[in-house]
Design a protein that fits this description.
By secondary structure, the protein is of the alpha/beta class. It contains eleven helices and 17 strands. Strands 3, 4, 5, 8, 9, 16 and 17 form a seven-stranded mixed sheet that branches. Bound molecules: NADP nicotinamide-adenine-dinucleotide phosphate and zinc ion (ZN) (2 copies). One zinc ion (ZN) binds next to helix 2.
Length: 349
């Protein structure tokens, strides 16, 4: 076993604090990664504070992990020592259901093993995430990171990147389409960059007029302030696709009204009940669709990293030492992040 230092929380209300735990020695198919950077996803905050119920403690959050490979098992072929590698939201799955067989491990019928707040398969051992020195992961759940990218800005691609890439690809967002990205945070800013790279006409749909300039810099063609009811009405029936990254229950009906006939809005942020409820009429009139999506499978995650390397797409990050993680959570709650906090894991040493 390998003694590993990290930061953990022990209940929904206590701050994250130093915590030492053990990682397994790498088995024949495992990769050991010394973590360089770990992004802070809004999910980390939801889970640490038990917003969705079922949180397990102690919890070491973090699923936007980039680091350097330091050991590999004898059977590993994907990476070698000294390569850069990434780990996202999953570290295992059943590997035999139809979803796993299609490389859609995130939809594993038995449920994937999450990088943290999960139990190792067939064991009571909790998984621990990337707010830590190192991680040991089976190679299927590791992606190769090209050294040509800015590694600290790559970390958020492992969740924010793939969570936006996958639905944009699945719903075939393409040149000439009018695409709205709702919520300019960690996910939203990656959504804007990726939708732009796919050739769409990108509209940033935001509650924050102060982010308009940034939205245009990130690649948006237009900004629509969702609190401006008259502007929302003017844009009714004009969108081919909407990607909704809002983290809290909210009224989806005004957003659905933006969709053209047969167009889809995909939710990635809200796991709990929508409040107020969805009006049937918002869907029935114009045959609109409301859908959901969770991260992406391992083959698609590698595809996304390679796409980003070709197009030089990374995240806009604000670096923090791990000692500032609690403050970063408070700023995330206050919508004060441009556009992803990333922990410099060297600060743990
Ligand atoms: P984030 O950085 O906090 O960004 C969320 C953005 O949503 C904010 O910047 C804000 O943008 C907008 N917003 C916040 N509260 C709002 C409200 N009450 N009403 C309307 N807009 C609001 O969060 P994130 O890391 O991008 O994560 C977003 C959500 O996706 C979280 O719930 C997270 O758990 C979830 N998530 C899901 C997946 C998945 O696989 N499905 C993966 C990762 C994360 P504006 O200021 O522009 O309005
Ligand atoms: Zn995440
Ligand atoms: Zn499976």
């Amino acid at each position: 076993m390998i003694q590993t230092r990290g930061y953990a929380t022990h209940n929904p209300t206590s701050p994250l604090a130093p915590f030492t735990f053990e990682r397994r020695d790498p088995g024949p198919h495992d990769v050991q990664i010394e973590i360089l950077y770990c992004g802070i996803c809004h999910t980390d905050l939801h889970q640490a504070r038990n917003h969705w119920g079922g949180s397990m403690y102690p919890m070491v959050p973090g699923h936007e992990i980039v680091g350097r490979v330091t050991r590999v098992g004898a059977q590993v072929t994907k990476v070698k020592v000294d390569d850069y590698a990434g780990v996202g939201c999953m570290v295992d799955s059943c590997r035999r259901c139809s979803a796993c067989n299609e490389g859609l491990e995130q939809y594993c019928q038995e449920g994937p093993t999450w990088t943290y707040n999960s139990k190792e398969r067939g064991s009571e051992q909790l998984t621990f995430g990337g707010y830590s020195e190192r991680v040991v992961v089976e190679e299927r759940f590791v992606v190769k990171i090209p050294g040509s990218l800015d590694l600290k800005a790559v970390a958020p691609l492992l969740c924010a990147g793939i969570t936006t890439y996958s639905p944009l690809r699945h719903w075939e967002v393409d040149k000439g389409q009018r695409v709205g990205i709702i919520g300019l945070g960690g996910l939203g800013h990656m959504g804007v960059k990726l939708a732009k790279a796919f050739g769409a006409h990108v509209v940033m749909v935001t509650t924050s007029p102060s982010k308009a300039k940034d939205a245009m810099r990130l690649g948006a063609d237009e900004v629509l302030v969702s609190k401006d009811a008259a502007a929302m009405t003017r844009q009714a029936n004009s969108f081919d696709f909407l990607l909704n990254t809002i983290p809290n229950p909210h009224d989806v009906n005004p957003y659905l009204a933006l969709l053209k006939r047969d167009a889809t809005m995909v939710l990635v942020g809200v796991l709990t009940a929508l409040e107020p409820p969805v009006m049937g009429g918002s869907l029935i009139i114009s045959r609109r669709r409301l859908a959901g999506s969770v991260i992406g499978g391992m083959p698609e995650t590698q595809e996304m990293i390679d796409f980003c390397a070709r197009h030089q797409i990374v995240s806009d990050v604000e670096m923090i030492p791990i000692q500032a993680v609690n403050e970063a959570y408070e700023r995330l709650l206050k919508n004060d992040v441009r556009y992803r906090f990333v922990i410099d894991i060297a600060s743990l040493k």
